[in-house]
Write a structure and sequence with these properties.
The chain is an alpha+beta fold. It has seven helices and ten strands. About 30% of the residues are buried.
Length: about 300
């Protein structure tokens, strides 16, 4: 399996690239929402009315998306062994198919990630593929509410490798794809595990963009609302409200700039309390469908 490589690729080469990408450069704020509260677009506007109260009180600058919010659609699939060996060891293998006006785009997207609350443990895992390939590496902090009460925040860290899958290679067996990532040798030394679609669930994601939150000091992010449905049953799985910020590196100065934004994140939770779905993540919900038990509760 081979793909075109460009000079801008950070993922496949020298030791310097690995060191450079071991720096946290993103902060992603996420709030899971009860899917039954967001079945229709009018529900989304009702949510936004409450959210805007927190924006108004905080003095954050908000630039709304002109006209109707753009809506994107994509299918999301997770792959793992029958015993969920990847996920139980904090790895995630995800595939996305993107759609535009009902048509699939020419390339699927494969994401391999390691996610854990310990930033140093995440930093130590090299998620780069073992081949020359176009890919992007992202190291980010995810800010989530506390699992058991409204108004708090906790951090988990993720190191992602995102690869493009050319159309001609869509039928490649996923076992082969797992072999692309040497980091998985720690999970199954000396052998390549069989993997399949987790719980036979394909998720359809509808993603809307409301506008941009501008916190000043060069930190701004697009507010998105995502709804996940089971494509087989059309049953809603979960919704998520979020925004992502990018910076040069996570240091003391950046932490000081993020502190008031985290306070804003806490205040938002009180404004939309009846919508909140605590104690899990989108990925975790897919793994626990059909009554499956997992130790990794993220």
């Amino acid at each position: 399996m081979s793909t075109t490589r460009t000079e801008s690729d950070l993922e496949c080469g020298p030791k310097l690239a690995a060191e450079a990408e071991a720096v946290v450069r993103f902060a992603e704020f996420k709030l899971l929402l009860k899917p039954d509260e967001l079945r229709h677009i009018v529900d989304a506007y009702a949510l936004w009315t409450h959210l805007y109260r927190a924006v108004d009180k905080s003095g954050v600058r908000f630039v709304p998306t002109p006209g109707d919010p753009p809506i994107r659609a994509r299918d999301v699939m997770f792959y793992d062994t029958p015993r969920f060996d990847l996920y139980e060891n904090h790895f995630i293998l995800r595939r996305r198919t993107h759609y535009r006006d009902g048509w699939t785009k020419s390339h699927d997207e494969l994401t391999f990630k390691f996610r854990h609350p310990d930033v140093e443990r995440v930093r130590a895992v090299d998620v780069r593929p073992g081949i020359k390939a176009q890919a992007r590496i992202k190291f980010k902090r995810e800010i989530l509410p506390l699992p058991d009460r409204i108004g708090g925040a906790r951090h988990i860290y993720t190191r992602n490798c995102v690869m493009v899958l050319p159309q001609a290679e869509r039928a490649v067996d996923v076992d082969t794809l797992v072999g692309l990532f040497p980091a998985l040798r720690a999970v199954h030394p000396g052998r390549r595990p069989h993997v399949a679609l987790v719980n036979q669930v394909t998720v359809n994601e509808t993603l809307s963009e409301f506008g941009v939150l501008d916190f000043g000091h060069g930190l701004a992010g697009t507010v998105t609302l995502a709804l996940w449905r089971d494509t087989e049953t059309s049953a809603p799985v979960v919704s998520e409200l979020g925004f992502q910020l990018k910076f040069d590196r996570l240091d003391e100065q950046t932490e000081a700039r993020l502190a008031p934004i985290e306070s804003f994140f806490r205040s938002v939770q009180h404004q939309i309390a009846r919508w909140l779905f605590l104690g899990t993540t989108k990925t975790n919900l897919v793994y626990r469908r059909q009554g499956r038990e997992v130790s990794n509760r993220e």
